[in-house]
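Field notebook, page 252. I keep forgetting to write these up properly, so this time I am using the form the group agreed on. The chain and the ligand, adenosine-5'-triphosphate, are recorded exactly as supplied. Prediction of the bound pose follows.
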Amino acid sequence: MTLLQTEQLTKQFGGLTAVDEVDMEIEQGEGVSLIGPNGAGKSTLINLVTRRLEPSYGDVSFKGESIVGMDPHEVVQQGMSKSFQTASVFPELSVKENATIAALAAEHGSFRVNFFRHRNSYPAVEELTNDVLRSVGLYGERETQADSLDYGNKRRLELGIALAAEPDMLLMDEPTAGMSPDETQSTVELIKRVKDELDLTFLLVEHDMEIVFDISDRIVVLNRGSVISTGTPEEVQNDPAVQEAYLGGVEE
Ligand SMILES: Nc1ncnc2c1ncn2[C@@H]1O[C@H](COP(=O)(O)OP(=O)(O)OP(=O)(O)O)[C@@H](O)[C@H]1O
């Protein structure tokens, strides 16, 4: 099943076409990375998909329905979450309280938790929260105040908060930015494990090619707003158009 589809999706800023008639499809269960040189249009494309930007023209559909016209929070309710946004963490609350709030806020999909309608479903919320904290390796830290987590664990909590909403699709913009090599490695392992465990569909923007090749089922390459290649990591790596546009100069 196609979860996300863009058709002729275009964003112009004045005379600059940042995203240029992009046709992209992401299937349920796929892990897709979006790569491309600086200024290729990756962030703009993500912002169009999450409805933080209005397209100049073209369409975005999620689960077969156009989401152009929806507010960003409505898109989240449809099952699309974006992780690695520190803004989603309440620093003065505990790890568990943060995850619980995220679980309570989720109002989509088969698992509908609405605190005000189903107060007696609190045990279900607690079970979900505990599962998520175990998945991201924070169960042992559940009583810790979010503020006092180290950097790597803060990022794990951000991922946990996104997962507690039980998203059908997770968007991640440079999840390992600012991390040490060890933290990067454990975050990559975490994303891979969570994807397998939860059959998660993701769209990742990442500059680190080692991570991209390790983590992706499929890669979409943008250059100057256009998709110049799409395929498995191997296909993309061997595509001369990509080598020229993106990996240019690394021939040995
Ligand atoms: N709000 C804006 N107003 C005007 N131009 C913009 C705006 N946002 C992005 N651009 C331009 O659109 C182009 C694409 O930018 P975008 O940030 O999407 O690229 P990117 O691939 O995410 O780059 P990076 O890898 O450096 O983050 C760039 O030329 C950028 O300067």
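OBSERVATIONS:
- Residues 181-198 form the longest helix (18 residues).
- Confidence is low (pLDDT under 50) at residues 108-120.
FOLLOW-UP: compare against the apo run.
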